[in-house]
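ok so i was messing around last nite and threw this chain in just to see what happens. nothing serious, just curious
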Amino acid sequence: MKLLVLNGPNINFVGIREKGIYGTEDYASLVTALETKAQSEGHDIEVFQSNYEGALIDKIQEAYHTGVEGIIINPGAFTHYSYALRDALASLEIPKVEVHISNVHKREEFRHTSVTAPVCTGQVVGLGLKGYALAMDFLTGK
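result:
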């Protein structure tokens, strides 16, 4: 299966920022774990991070043309207000799973609303970096 993992703003700073919320494992170890898991299960995976909304939208549109079969996305702060990202996700008729490292429902009020979740197949929230592996398992039918 061909998978795309998209990470929005500041996700590249896991292990650096707010360790009490996001943990101490760094972004490079997340990428390595996802690539290792995908390879061991026979899947093709691309992991992409950007602090720029347009770059994420470009990757989603590229996914349409390159035959991506499933998307895992942690939109970061774009979760709460990016209708452009939401519309890009809605344009693809493939399974998509939104992932959040922290439990956004136990945090500040503004984090409780996701404009992207309604166009995703499912959501994994508050399970740390393990949420990405669980999202991959769902997409690959494991």
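not much to say yet. Helices lie at 19-22, 27-40, 53-66, 83-90, 130-140.
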